[in-house]
Amino acid sequence: MSVYVDTNVLVYWLVSDPVYGEKAMKLVESIEAGNTAITSALSLVQVNWVMESLFKAGVIKKHDPRRMIESIAGIQNLRIVRLESSICKRALRHVERYGLDFEDAVHLETALRHKCAEILSADRDFDRGPLPRRF
Fold it and tell me: pTM surpassing 0.85?
């Protein structure tokens, strides 16, 4: 059974975050070692937005969207799935039921749609949802 990779894991991995980078690296390594995983195309958009923000704030020296996408797409055993309108519509239920923001609700619905066993994320908001969260 697959695991779902949230945006923050990818960001922490890409920037080698001083607090969460090591945990994110271990999660990515476990995926590459054979644990199948998925993430939504929404994650690529969100990672790009965060990376642009970090670049503009001077936290990182360079941001290349093409390289970012290639890095994420290059993670073995990680499948990037489409963002569909039906997922967005169904995600509204998770906003109401679990008090998630819309983006997290979309990630949760994507994980449920693809029958993921858990969500890999540093975001504790997912603890209110039906899937276990690990980080």
Answer: yes
